[in-house]
Amino acid sequence: MPSTRDIRRRIKSVKNTAQITKAMQMVAAAKMRKAQLAAVVGRPYAELMNEVLAQASVGTAAFEHPLMAVRPVKKRAIILVSSDRGLCGGLNSNLFREVVKFDKNTTLYITAGRKAAQFVARTKRPLAAEFTYKDTPPFAEGRAISKFAQELFLSGEVDAVDILFSKFVSTLVQQPKVIPFLPVGKIAPVTAGINAPATQAPASAAGSDTFEFEPDEQTVLGELLPHSLNFQMHQILLEAKASEQSARMVAMKNATDNAKQIIKDLTLEYNKLRQANITKELLEITTAQMAVG
Amino acid sequence: MAATLKIEVVTPEARAFSSDVDMVTLTGVEGDMGILPGHMPLMTQLVAGEIVMRRGSETIYYAVGDGFVQVTAQKVAILTDMAVAAENIDETKAQEALDRAQARLAQKLSEEETAAVEASIAHATAQLKVKRISRK
Lengths: 293, 136
Known about the structure:
The complex is a heterodimer.
Chain A: H1 4-41, H2 43-59, E1 76-81, H3 91-99, E2 107-112, H4 114-122, E3 127-131, H5 139-154, E4 160-168, E5 174-182, H6 203-207, E6 212-214, H7 217-292
Parallel strand pairs in A: 1-2, 1-4, 2-3
Antiparallel strand pairs in A: 4-5
Helix pairs in contact in A: 1-7, 2-7, 5-7
Chain B: E1 5-11, E2 14-21, E3 23-28, E4 31-35, E5 42-46, E6 49-55, E7 58-64, E8 67-71, E9 75-80, E10 83-85, H1 91-106, H2 111-135
């Protein structure tokens, strides 16, 4: 039977925990809003790039690029995008469950985020490179990862590259998702923003105007293709960040709620115990009085 | 109607500039070009450098990185990885970045790093150049 003092101490400690988780929830909420905003500001860029891509590919029917080469897949690389820190619920463990589905012996890993690197090292999987990215990842960080993957592919070291990341479905739901990165099957429009509909270049712009290219279509398209991949990687980092922050926010909200429930239960127990003690003391006093009198 | 060109400068991180102007001068892979309203549709690559825009009597300078330009009769769209307005350029910072990048270039670097350093040199040089021109 714990004494009232023990219970009081426990209440205090749980209260402190609740305060911390509450603060973390607030921080995550603010960061989530920022991450979502960052994903949206890339939209005009994506629209414009799609337009240029569409126009460029109209002029070049039989366009070939080394990044589009389809080879039989003997070895593949996975770009694993996780968070840097924990305390975000099942986000990373859900992600890593997907990782296990790939064959250990024919897969190479490129990681973004500290948790992914730790996981790959712990499970003794081959790690090709380790990248980190900030809370609001600048374009250069996405570009670095994408460039590395493109080089692996072009050098023939791997025959396909996939990206595994947490897709932002809603604030409450994040889904681990694998999307193919290389080879580029067909030139698809890139989307920016979370759950944004694919922005199609207006048909008029793609068809009616015939564009002059300088120096020529092949060169422009050849330059544009790796660029659009870089941008795609950048958008994925932004989305993974938004997923991470919303997962953390929800996890911390649950923690705060649980702590509050425990405080309530403990307070009830504390009051019961206190009352029992008072009753016991009263009984003792009256019995003593009766014995004397 | 006085013809104007709608210009849009976008980077992956923001829409840097959007306005109606009378003329745009920019650096393409095949040299500088001036674009006036009614230009023929053109698509080209942009080289790190400056873009100069005339709006009435006002001249606007921007330092830009590598990218792509799409020109139509009424519109110029510029996709680039960097765009900084002349008045926002910090000369000392750009100079520092340039010095740092050049110092790094002197060391042995992998191909990937060299490319990154060269890009930052191009950015810094463009910024310094724009700052100098805009002061004249």
